[in-house]
Design brief:
Blueprint: H1 14-48, H2 70-87, H3 92-100, H4 103-112
Helix pairs in contact: 1-2
Protein backbone atom coordinates (compact mmCIF):
# COMPACT_ATOMS: atom_id res chain seq x y z
CA UNK A 1 0.00 0.00 0.00
CA UNK A 2 1.12 3.53 -0.62
CA UNK A 3 1.52 4.76 2.95
CA UNK A 4 3.24 1.66 4.31
CA UNK A 5 6.98 0.97 4.12
CA UNK A 6 8.28 -1.62 1.68
CA UNK A 7 8.27 -5.10 3.31
CA UNK A 8 11.97 -5.54 2.51
CA UNK A 9 12.79 -2.51 4.66
CA UNK A 10 11.53 -4.40 7.72
CA UNK A 11 14.32 -6.97 7.28
CA UNK A 12 17.38 -5.64 9.07
CA UNK A 13 20.02 -8.30 8.37
CA UNK A 14 21.79 -7.58 5.07
CA UNK A 15 22.39 -11.25 4.25
CA UNK A 16 18.68 -11.96 4.68
CA UNK A 17 17.85 -9.03 2.40
CA UNK A 18 20.27 -10.31 -0.22
CA UNK A 19 18.77 -13.81 -0.04
CA UNK A 20 15.27 -12.36 -0.45
CA UNK A 21 16.42 -10.36 -3.50
CA UNK A 22 18.05 -13.43 -5.03
CA UNK A 23 14.92 -15.49 -4.39
CA UNK A 24 12.76 -12.88 -6.09
CA UNK A 25 15.15 -12.78 -9.06
CA UNK A 26 14.98 -16.57 -9.33
CA UNK A 27 11.17 -16.51 -9.25
CA UNK A 28 11.06 -13.77 -11.89
CA UNK A 29 13.47 -15.75 -14.06
CA UNK A 30 11.37 -18.89 -13.72
CA UNK A 31 8.17 -17.04 -14.64
CA UNK A 32 9.91 -15.43 -17.63
CA UNK A 33 11.17 -18.82 -18.86
CA UNK A 34 7.70 -20.30 -18.38
CA UNK A 35 6.14 -17.53 -20.46
CA UNK A 36 8.72 -18.00 -23.20
CA UNK A 37 8.19 -21.78 -23.19
CA UNK A 38 4.42 -21.36 -23.41
CA UNK A 39 4.81 -18.97 -26.32
CA UNK A 40 7.13 -21.38 -28.12
CA UNK A 41 4.67 -24.25 -27.64
CA UNK A 42 1.86 -22.07 -29.03
CA UNK A 43 4.02 -21.04 -31.97
CA UNK A 44 4.91 -24.66 -32.72
CA UNK A 45 1.23 -25.64 -32.55
CA UNK A 46 0.24 -22.88 -34.96
CA UNK A 47 3.14 -23.17 -37.38
CA UNK A 48 3.89 -26.88 -37.56
CA UNK A 49 0.54 -28.65 -37.07
CA UNK A 50 0.19 -29.20 -40.81
CA UNK A 51 3.83 -30.21 -41.36
CA UNK A 52 4.36 -32.79 -38.62
CA UNK A 53 1.95 -35.73 -38.91
CA UNK A 54 3.26 -37.09 -35.59
CA UNK A 55 1.47 -34.30 -33.76
CA UNK A 56 -1.93 -35.93 -34.41
CA UNK A 57 -1.35 -39.00 -32.24
CA UNK A 58 -3.54 -38.27 -29.22
CA UNK A 59 -7.23 -38.93 -28.80
CA UNK A 60 -9.15 -35.73 -28.28
CA UNK A 61 -12.91 -35.67 -27.78
CA UNK A 62 -13.29 -32.69 -30.12
CA UNK A 63 -10.13 -32.62 -32.24
CA UNK A 64 -9.22 -29.72 -34.46
CA UNK A 65 -8.66 -30.64 -38.07
CA UNK A 66 -5.88 -28.11 -38.58
CA UNK A 67 -4.22 -27.09 -35.31
CA UNK A 68 -3.25 -29.35 -32.44
CA UNK A 69 -3.53 -28.31 -28.81
CA UNK A 70 -0.68 -27.03 -26.65
CA UNK A 71 -0.93 -30.19 -24.55
CA UNK A 72 -0.46 -32.35 -27.65
CA UNK A 73 2.63 -30.39 -28.69
CA UNK A 74 4.04 -30.66 -25.17
CA UNK A 75 3.55 -34.44 -25.08
CA UNK A 76 5.08 -34.79 -28.56
CA UNK A 77 8.13 -32.74 -27.57
CA UNK A 78 8.51 -34.60 -24.30
CA UNK A 79 8.58 -37.91 -26.17
CA UNK A 80 10.79 -36.89 -29.09
CA UNK A 81 13.02 -33.94 -28.18
CA UNK A 82 16.08 -36.03 -27.32
CA UNK A 83 15.73 -38.01 -30.54
CA UNK A 84 15.45 -34.76 -32.48
CA UNK A 85 18.61 -33.43 -30.80
CA UNK A 86 20.48 -36.65 -31.63
CA UNK A 87 19.37 -36.44 -35.27
CA UNK A 88 20.55 -32.83 -35.53
CA UNK A 89 24.00 -32.56 -33.90
CA UNK A 90 24.77 -29.46 -35.98
CA UNK A 91 22.16 -27.31 -34.18
CA UNK A 92 23.50 -24.68 -31.80
CA UNK A 93 21.30 -25.86 -28.94
CA UNK A 94 22.59 -29.42 -29.36
CA UNK A 95 26.19 -28.20 -29.29
CA UNK A 96 25.52 -26.15 -26.14
CA UNK A 97 23.91 -29.10 -24.36
CA UNK A 98 26.76 -31.44 -25.33
CA UNK A 99 29.38 -28.95 -24.17
CA UNK A 100 27.70 -28.75 -20.74
CA UNK A 101 27.47 -32.51 -20.26
CA UNK A 102 30.00 -34.30 -18.10
CA UNK A 103 31.53 -36.87 -20.44
CA UNK A 104 32.81 -39.07 -17.62
CA UNK A 105 29.23 -39.92 -16.59
CA UNK A 106 28.32 -40.73 -20.19
CA UNK A 107 31.40 -42.93 -20.54
CA UNK A 108 30.59 -44.72 -17.29
CA UNK A 109 27.05 -45.42 -18.50
CA UNK A 110 28.40 -46.85 -21.75
CA UNK A 111 30.74 -49.16 -19.85
CA UNK A 112 27.90 -50.41 -17.64
CA UNK A 113 25.89 -51.58 -20.62
Amino acid sequence: RKGEPHPLEQVTDETDRQRIRLTLQAIEGFVMCSCIATGLVQLIALRFSERVPGLFFRYLRTPSKTIVSEATVTVYLRKSIFRLFAQNPHLSITKIIRSKQDTSIVDADLLAS
